[in-house]
Amino acid sequence: MSDSKTAPASGLHLPIDRRSLLRAGSLLAGAGVLGASRPLWAADTFEEMKPRWTSAKIDWRQQAGKTIVLGGEQHSWMKAITPLLPHFTRLTGIEVKVSLQSETEYVADMPVKLGAKNPTPDVFMVWSLGQAISARWLEPLDAMLANPKLTDNAWWDAEDVFPSALSFQKWSDGHHYALAITAEAQTLFANKTLLDAKGLKVPATMDEWLASAKALKTPTTAGVVLRARATGDAAPWPAGGFVFSYGGAIMTLAGQPALTSPETVAAVEMYARMLREAGPLGVGNYHWQECLNDFMGGAAAFGCDSSNFATDIADKSKSKVAGNVLFGALPKAGNRPAKPNMWHWVVGMNSQSRHKEATWLFLQWATSKPTCELAAAAGLATPRASAWATSAFGQRFGAQAAQATLANLKAADGDLFKAAWFHPKSPQILEAFAIAINQAVTGAKDAKSALDAANTAILKALA
C-alpha cells in the first residue's frame, strides 16, 4: 500500500499528476469533506471516507482476494479514479489493475479483444454503447442491481444522478448495461486577453464567431482550433454540435442517415470554413489533444470542445492562459437555438469476465456519492448533482466553467446524439462522417459532395 507521501504506482502504467491530487486534498479539507489537508490516495483519507462507503448495506469484503482489470483510454476519469483505487482495495480486498491506451488505440483495440471473447478487461470505458450491446460484449446489470446481497440501491441513490446520465445507463430493450461516470457538454472557450485587445466579446452567433476568429488570426496564433482528423473519435463530436444547431442531424430518429439535408450541409460548410479561414496550419490532423495543447499554449483564440477541458485550462502548471479564459455557450446558427453536443462516458462489465461480482462491486463503488466527491475534487465533472454542489469541485473546475457546462448540458439534444452515437453501426457512421468533415476542411471536396459520399457509405453499411 502507498503511504501518504508517495503517490500510488497507478496500476499497470498510468502516470499520476501528484500536484493536482495534493491540491484536491486541500480543497476537500477546505470544504469540510476531509478533516485535514492530505493527498487523495493517503491512508488517512481512506479512514475518513470509510464510514460513508461502509454505510452501504452490503458486505464489501465478499469478493476479497480477487483481481480485476480496468480498461480505459487517456481521459480525465482515468486520471481521477486511478489514485483512488487503493481505497477500493482497502475496502474490499479486491485488487484493480489498470490498462490504459490512447483514444485512437483504445477504440481500435477493444473490439478485437472483446470480439475474441477475452475475459479482460473485466470493466471498461464504453466508447460505443450501441455496438457493445449489439455485439453482446456487455453484461446486463439488472440482476445485480436487484440483488440486495450485492447492491444497496438506496445508498447508491439514482435520484442524485443527472437524468440525461440515467438515460445512458438504460438501453431501449429496458435493460441496464452500464453506469455513467462523467457529464460533458460541448463548450466554447475564449482567450480573454486576445478578445480584449481587439475589443471583441464572446460571440453569440456562428457568423459572429467566424468574424471574430478571422480578426484574431495572426501568423503565430490561430483564430480557432477544432478537431478535423478523419477518424470517428475525432471530428464528428464537435461537428455534431454544429449540425444539431443548424437544425440538421447525422442520423434521424428513425435510424436513417441525414447527411445530405440542407441543414447538415450548411453546418459542415461553416465548420470547414471556420477552420480554413481561421484555423491553424495542419488542422486536418487535429484531434482533441492538439486543440487543447494549442489553446493552453496561447496559440489559439477560440476552442470549442469538451467541458472537461476546463480543469486543464485552469491549471497554471500546464496552461499559459490559466485564469484568463471565458467559457460560454455554443453560438447559435441564426435564430435557431444552439444544440451543443453532449456526452456521458459510461463504464460497463465485460460479458466474458470471470469475476463479475467483484467487478460489480467496483462499478458500484466507483460511481457512488463518496467516490464521485473525491473525483470531483480533482476536477472531474461527474454525473452526480451532489458532487457538482461541493465547493471543492467549484474551486477546481471553476465556477464560470461549471455554469457554462450546465447551461450547455441543458441545451443539448440527447436524442439527436444517441441516434448517431448509440446506433449499432456507429463506428461506420462516424467514420464516414469524419472523412467528409476532413475533406471539407482540407478542401479536398466541397461539403455537399463530401457529405453525399458519406451518406452513400452509411447506407451501404446499414444494408
The largest sheet, given as strand count, sense and whether it forms a barrel, is:
5 strands, mixed
Radius of gyration: 22 Å
Give the low-confidence spans.
1-38
Amount of helix: 40-55%
Mean pLDDT across all residues, rounded? 91
* Morphology call: globular
What is the overall number of helices? 23
Largest sheet, spatial ordering of strands: 2-1-3-10-4
- For the secondary structure, the number of strands is 10
Coarse structural class: alpha/beta
Q: How much strand content do the residues show?
A: 5-15%
Q: Tell me the distance between the termini.
A: 54 Å
Could you describe the 3D structure shown?
The protein is α/β, with parallel strands linked by helices. It is 47% helix and 11% strand. It is built from 23 helices and ten strands. The chain has helices spanning 18-30, 43-54, 76-81, 85-92, 103-115, 129-134, 142-145, 153-156, 163-169, 192-197, 206-216, 236-245, 262-278, 288-296, 309-313, 356-366, 369-377, 385-388, 391-397, 399-411, 414-421, 426-442, 447-462; strands spanning 67-73, 95-101, 123-126, 178-180, 184-191, 222-225, 300-306, 325-328, 342-343, 346-349. A five-stranded mixed sheet has the order 2-1-3-10-4. Strands 5, 6, 7, 8 and 9 form a five-stranded mixed sheet that branches. Helix 12 (236-245) crosses helix 13. Residues 1-38 have low confidence and may be disordered.
